[in-house]
Structures are given as structure tokens and as C-alpha cells.
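Sample 1 of the test manifest.
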Amino acid sequence: MKNELNVHTRSISRRSFLITAGTVGIAVSYGNLASQAFAATIATETAGNYRPNAWVTIDHDGTVTIISPASEMGQGVMTTLPLLIADEMDAEWSKVKVVQSPSDAEKYGNPGFYGIQLTGGSETVRGYYEPLRLVGAQTRMILLHSAAEILDKPVTELNTEPGMVVHTPTQTRISYGEISRLGKISDPLPQISKTDLKQPEQWHYIGKQDLPRIDVPSKVDGSAIYGIDVQLPDMLYGAVIRPPVQGETPATIDDSEAKNVVGITRIVRLPYGVGIIGETIEATIRAKEMLSIEWTTGSRIRNYSSASLIDEYRKAGSDLSQTGVNAVKKGEAAQAIASSDILIEADYLSDHVYHATMEPMNATALVSDDEVEVWAPTQGPTFTQGFAAQTAGTTTDKVKVHTTMLGGGFGRRAERDFVDDAVSLAKEVKGRPVKVVWSREDDVRHGKYRPLVAQHVRVGLTSSGAISGWQHRVAADSIFARTLPPVFEDAGGLDDVVTEGADFNYDMPTHEVEYLRQDNGLDIGYWRAVGCGYTKFAVECVIDEIAATRNIDPAQQRLELLAGEPRARKVIENTVKMSDWSRPREGRALGLAYSDSFGAHCAAVAEVSVNRENGQIRVHKVWTSVDPGVAIQPQNIEAQMTGAITHGISHALYEQINVVNGEVQEGNFDTYRVIRMSEIPEVEVSILGDPTQKPSGMGEVGLPPIGPAIANAFARLTDGARLRHYPFLPERVLEALNG
Amino acid sequence: MTSFTINGRVVEITAEPDTPLLWAIREHLKLTGTKYGCGLAQCGACTVHVDGEPTRACVTWLEDVAGKEVTTIEGLSEDGSHPLQKSWIAEQVPQCGYCQSGQIMQAAALLKNNPAPSREEIVDHMDGNICRCATYDRIIKAIQRAARES
């Protein structure tokens, strides 16, 4: 049967993520590809703009197995992507199983995101939305052709309903399971085009039904397998000690005590630290404490102290004689501002923040003579293949990456350091897998923090209050210069991800965004909403400062600037209405912000109070409206919005990494404060979807507007006192209050 | 060698007596539903029950549980049918899900002693458990639902 079905297209990969465990025995997969299955493979679409793919398998019992190509880190893609295929092919959701894809960018790469497997930038659903629906539509067409042959009826008389092909004139039904048993795949494969896609009214799942997330049952009974949970036969454990200051290396290693810890197999010098290999995890942790290492002291990062650097960056941002690279250049903003009647000018600062994924960094690797296997909670299986190959000294085709569940990602898991650890140590003990687990302290102190940023915004107003020019100068180190040097070079020293969000849809006669790259060498990286997380802080607070100067309502100010943006206006108007915006609150105030990030429109209103004695801010309630384009799974959108807003409150009020002479001062959740249950506000979410629009991203959309909404509420509460430095620590709040 | 009962089964672990219970559960017994989050009892991801009491396994030594009964998320119910597991699904609580075993174990201890907790009692009892995806609102709803429906 299989041979008949595998026509001229690529056969489906039958490898699924499967871990077999030791004594207790935990065998987990995200669903197995049935061996006697109907391989519905997908050929090149007529337009020819995506590659042959292998996504769907149907078993005789009607089980439909769909491959999910992206990393599940909480955002729900393991459900959202497969349901796109399921809807178009008319699969019955109760019979759908989902399998995490292997690392294979050619088959499973995101056509909208460099064609690779990289989950980030809120690009997943945006990039796969149309291609996966086309996969589903073609699968449906293949099923119809197979059924036509089995039933000996013309395909034009056949239709589908979930799980079934129906011969309309006779009402004869044949299930997908039966077709998989009896049918052949026609050769050549039937072709389809975008015009074959369902119309929104024909959808069963997209925007119609909130499907329970496929990963949830495994997350309430302990069976979900994250990277840290990987168990392999004969597995060893690894730990790595990194230097307290980035870039330094071990000068001397005294392992006389550590190597005698029972269960320690090997202690190895790595280019960036010291590795420990042992038979048990607790042995590696004990040995780590007993190792005595003297580090070199020559790293330039010893000059890195975040509190003084932010001041330097602020000076760079406000020193107009320093010029940067233009991220936006519309007209001559500086000239327009120079000849304006009113100047509004402010600096907005943001400290480093850390990801704090609940699952610390980890990975497991097995290196043999001709192959490398990696099990990792990674956002970037394609990059991971490359990193592992480089570290192991082989080529990417020799590397298999098994993507596990991710216990949070937020950008941190697009990095390579945890993969390097596992492969570096596995290389030392070829033939035995090594699992490396970072301690929370390792994770906090060796993060890839969001950059330290100073933003200088200058706005010119005419005497009637119209904006004549908007200048936004972003001073920060570069992420791309480290992670994607060719992208950074090609862009002429611009770093899109650092300045993103400064380019907005407010209508301005002139608008200039400049990137003033700072270069102090500390590794910085992607963080939930990256640039938008702080650029919207500056933009949205300045909008309120303009409104205050003009003495008009901040909502009105935004609506004026968004005259040509009906979707943006709608989220603002809706949120204003939800919050009963103009009703005064005793001892509290409301603040508004809007964000156009990640292809969505999002507005948030925060209700805030402040304790004037101790400087503590409390967010009591948040109302938010989001227009995500087509709202594929509203219940999950609500979860993402609530989560991102609460995450955003956490970072705006509490989160801060301090680096002093190159050493990170925080070490665990006792010193790096994140929001807890007693600190959350009620969040009311309104989803203003439009099924005819493409979907926006969703995992990051809610984060950018909440910080400025809080700061704007604070200003309205305090007769104009401005919070311009993330996070809003009590001492900064008191300073703002006391002028 | 330390002997104790886990999820109704007697086990013997060969490890140093000061080995954190967490590693015995996760890496010796391969019961990986109990998570490592901080190692300092700051986040609650490793919460298990020891003789029915919610306990942070990361700061509990193996010798402390000798002869005792330990319950992990895998042993909370035989088939995922504990009222909290059902309400967690009904409310679609988890996002990344990593902290949820600890959240559920912490909540189970609450409901055992207080079958109808107020919102304030829930928050007070759960405040030591961090959820970085910030699913706190749904955790509260799921606990309330379980209290209502059981």
C-alpha cells in the first residue's frame, strides 16, 4: 500500500519525537505516525512559490496525523498551525494527532521567515497561514480524487464534510479512514490554487470554534516532555561553569577536589569555561561547587556597568551632533522641528531585562563518529543544526535536532550557548548522550538580556498644536551585530530589531528615526517584543505629553493622528469605551497607549494608583482591544493578550538586570523580581477580528502598550509627573513625584 | 540507600542522603513531571506532597523523606481525573506549561484542607508559585471551578 501511495513526490518522514525512559518508563511522543498510513504528500503549488512538503498522514482508523513545524513555547502553535491544515482538508479535529516536525528546513521551514525553522518575531502564524491552508486544500483534493476512484463517481459530484467524502447525489459516504485503506493517490497530483481555499463562512475551526489546545492534557499530568526532561539510555549529565565576566577564560583550574566527587567522569576545559561530566546530575552540581577556577581578567566587559552606561547612552541620544543610521526618514524632521513653535523633548531609558523562562537553559546531545543528535527546547532547530555541526566539527546534514516542548522561550531559546554546552561535552564522551542543565543562577547571570537603551524623542508643534516633525533617536548596542552579522552589515549598520516599533502608523509630515549604535560588548538578545517593548514606551508617552501640552484628551490626540487608519481607531475607541475612560476614579487614574506592532492593532488602558509614601505603583485593572486580523482561536488570543500584558506590567514595574564591572548582580528569583499572582490586575480583552484579513502575530502584541499606559496613567494621576525610566522602581517613582 | 513511597510504590534510591529530593524524583526515578525552576524554593515548580503537605522538592533532602509518602503530579490521579486536572483543561490554563505541575500540586493541597477557598485565600496560598507566561488569572478560575464542581 505504501509504495503505491508514495508517488513522485517526497515521501513523508516517519520519525517522530520519541523518548524511551529508564526504570519507571515514560514513553512520550506527540502522537505516532502510523506505519500503515496513507501518505498524502503535497506537490508544488501551481504558482510555484512554496516547496514540496509532507504534512499529513491518515490512518485506517481515520486518525489524521499532522506535522507541526514550529516550536511550542506556550503560544499555542502546536494547535494553531495543524488546525489550518485540518480546516481546509475537512479533518475531524477529534481524530487529529499532531507530531512535532523533525529539523528539516527544506520541508518545514517558515516560508514567511527566511524559509527556516525559527519560531520568533511573532512570525509563525503569519508565515504559515496561507501555505498550510494550501496544504490542507490540496490534501482534500487528493482525498476527493481517491474517493472518486473507489466509488467510481465523477469527482465533480463529490464533496467533503469533516472526516468524510460524500457523493452528493446518492448521499453515499466514505470516511477518510476507509479512503486511506482502499484508495490510491492520483498521479499526477491534483493541483490547486488560492482560489480553492475556503471562504471564511466555510471554515469549521478558524474563527469558528475554540479547539482545546493539543498540548494541554500533557501539561496537567506531567507527561509533556521539555528539553530538561529528556532521558536516554546510558545518558550522562553535564554542567558548565562560565566566567563571572563575559569573555574571560579559565587561567588555572584546580579540580583536585571536584574530580573525586563520586560519579564524576570528566572535567574538561572549554574555550569559554569549564565542563563537568558525571553519572548523576547531583554529582555534577557538587563538583561544580568544589571546582576552584581562576579566571583571566582581561575582558573589556569589566568596563561594563549598566548604571553608568545608561547615562552615557542618554547623552549620546540627546547630543544632536552625533548622528546615527536612519531607520526611518520621511522629510526633514530636524528642520521642521527647528522652525516649530513648541518643542517637546524627552529621554526615555530602559534597563536590561532577563527572560526568566521557567525552564532553565538545557540541551542533550549524542555525538558519534558520523552523526550528531541534539534534543533541545529550541526556538531555532535550523540554527541549532548549524551550531551543533560547527561545535562538533561536522556538517549540518549530519545533525538531527529533536525539538522538545519549550518551558518558555521569549527569544532566549534562539541562542546557541546551551546547545554548545551539550555538544561540547558529548564530544568528549562519544557514543553516550550528555544532558546539560543550567542552574537558575547560570541562567540569570549568563542571559542574553534585552539591550540597555536610551531614547531621545524631539517633537515640534505649530502654534495650533499640529505636529510638524518627529525625531526619535535610539542609542543602544546591537543585537544583529552579534547574532546575524551579515544582516547587520547589509543593512548598513542598522538593527531593525533594536529600533522596531519606532516606525509607526501615526500620520506625521516629517518623521526620522536614527539608530546610534553603542558598542560595549555585552551579549544582548531578543526578548519578548524586543524593540517594540521600549520604543512604544517612548512613543506612547510622548503622544500623551503632546496631548497634555495641547490640553486635549490623549485618546483624541491619537485618533487625530490615525485619521487614515480605521482599524487602529477602532481598537482605541473600543478600549476607551470599555474602560469608561472619562469617568474619574477616586485616587486612581487611567492611562492609554496604542501599538501597531507585529501586524496587529492593540490599545490598552490601565487603571493605576500610587502609594506616595513608598513609591509603589499598583495596576488595578487593564482593558485592551486587539485587532489581530483573522482571529483564528479567540480563546488563545485572549490568553496571549492577558499573558503578554501581565508580563509587560512585570517588566515595567519590577524587572532589572544590573551589571557592575561586567558582573551580573542578580542570581535567582529572590533578586530578579517577576510578577506574582497577588500583583496581577484583572485584564479584560476585546478581540476585534476580521476574517477577511491576514492574521497578525499574537505572542508579543500585548506587551508594548502596557508600560506606557501605566506611565500615562501615573502622569494623569500626579498632575503631570513623568516616569521615563523602565522599570518604575519605587525610588524612581518617588523621584518623579518629588520633581 | 534511602527508601520511601512515591505515588503508592516503595522505592529505594542509591544516592547521597543530602541529594535534593527533586533530582531523585526526576533523574533517578524518571518522574519528570516535577520541574526544576530555581533550587531555592522561590518559584514552586518542584512542588510535591510529602505526607500530604505541599513541599518544595528542590530544598528537601532525600534523607528527609525516608519512610515517608511522596506524591508527584504523576500520582495525583491515575488517569488525569483529579478535579484540578480536569478544571485546568476546562479553563485551558497552561501556556508553556512548565510551572503547571507545581501549580496543580500546590492547589491540590489547598483544596484538600479548604474545599471552598475564597479568591483571597487562593491568591495567598498560590503566591509562591511563579508562572512566567502569567496564566495566573486562569489558575484562579480553574481552582474556583474545581472547588465548585467537586
